[in-house]
Amino acid sequence: MSTIRAVIRGCGHYLPERVVPNAEFAATLDTSDDWIVSRSGIERRHFAAEGEYTSDLATHAARRALDSSGITPDQIDAVVVATSTPDFTFPAVATQVQAALGIRQGFAFDIQAVCAGFVFALANANGLILGGQAKRVLVIGAETFSRIMDWTDRGTCVLFGDGAGAVVLEAVESDGTSDDRGILGVDLNSDGQYRELLYVDGGVSRSGTAGVLKMQGREVFRHAVEKLAQTATTALDRAGLGAGDVDWVVPHQANLRIIRGTAQKLGVPMEKVVVTVQDHGNTSAASIPLALSVAAARGQFQPGDCIVTEAIGGGLSWGAVVLRW
Ligand code: UT7
């Protein structure tokens, strides 16, 4: 039975110029390159410059995604930005990106599901396309987590980075089988009882400040592998596919040990897993579109490849999207 699928037409990413190696933290904190690499896999990350904001990162990534898709700004019906570090409390970063790209039609809004934000944004954009609300959607993950770090907390400030990634989705008439290109399966979850494991201790209504990130890393880790493997399996199942059909996993890039553990639990070998955490650190909602775009630029994906994206973050919120390239 013929159906509409949301197909990725192009992708792009942007990283701020400043690269911060692990050694820089050892100068001011009781930490070491050895500890950071062995516990997280992170070797370096990028930090935005003074005067460089989330909407700037998002706009650069979006321009590159549009260029690679051959789709022009006047053809975009919706802009969706996943972020937890917006320039302003309001309006949405997405409206600023819309303006910067000269898009005057359609609508734009932000999604806040922290590190799972891009998966939630992709799923929502897919829903807009399947529901006939939009034909072409720009979906962006963009963050400046360096702005919400506690620089005295070695358990968190060495882990996060800034960046942005974007994809252009387009509605395509398809056969309605699991061989179709585009988004084939989605699974989203949240469980708000775990707020204290990972949160920011300020906000508009509560403190009137932006706050800083607090994380019980070991506890988040404990939830991560099991929930990520489970959500990826559910999304694959909904797509009518199994682990044996997977060509690539593009996981949220928080910790190499979580990435490895999840791949093992899923039964997918590490040769099929895109890993960028060593170069970007944890860029929250930006990490999956960044990894996707880096892998695409390396020529790793072939048309028709089955790709699984999965992420978990504050909330807790977690989810997966299965798509065919
Ligand atoms: O993206 C959103 C989701 N977030 C995540 O997925 C993050 C999940 N968690 C993690 O990635 C890991 O838990 C961490 C990388 C944050 C920490 O690794 P860990 O193996 O769980 O270490 P730990 O928190 O159990 O800490 C072990 C030790 C502690 O010392 P004691 O209590 O054993 O004496 C920490 O104080 O390591 C200490 N430690 C550090 N030592 C040197 C914590 N941070 C550092 C540091 N340098 N930067």
> Can you list the strand order of the major beta sheet?
1-7-6-4-5
- Binned, the helix content reads 25-40%
SSE string: EEHHEHEHEHEEEEEHEHHHEE
Distance between the termini: 21 Å
CATH C-level class of the largest domain: Alpha Beta
Strand elements, count? 13
CATH architecture of the largest domain: 3-Layer(aba) Sandwich
Please tell me the total number of domains.
2
* Largest sheet geometry: 5 strands, mixed
**Radius of gyration from CA coordinates:** 18 Å
Q: Structural class, please?
A: alpha/beta
Structure description:
The chain is an alpha/beta fold and 325 residues long. It folds into two domains: 3-174, 3-Layer(aba) Sandwich (Peroxisomal Thiolase, Chain A, domain 1), CATH 3.40.47; 182-324, Thiolase/Chalcone synthase (Peroxisomal Thiolase, Chain A, domain 1), CATH 3.40.47.10. It has helices at 23-26, 33-40, 54-69, 93-100, 117-130, 217-238, 256-266, 277-280, 287-297, and strands at 3-14, 18-21, 44-47, 78-82, 107-111, 136-144, 162-174, 182-190, 198-200, 213-215, 248-251, 306-313, 317-324. It has a five-stranded mixed sheet, sandwiched between helices. Strands 8-13-12-11 form a four-stranded mixed sheet, sandwiched between helices. The chain has a two-stranded antiparallel ribbon with strand order 2-3. A hairpin with a 3-residue loop joins strand 12 (306-313) and strand 13 (317-324). The protein is globular. The two termini are 21 Å apart. The model has no long low-confidence stretch (mean pLDDT 97). Oxa(dethia)-CoA (UT7) binds next to helix 2, helix 6 and strand 12. Homodimer. It catalyses: malonyl-[ACP] + acetyl-CoA + H(+) = 3-oxobutanoyl-[ACP] + CO2 + CoA. Its EC number is 2.3.1.180.
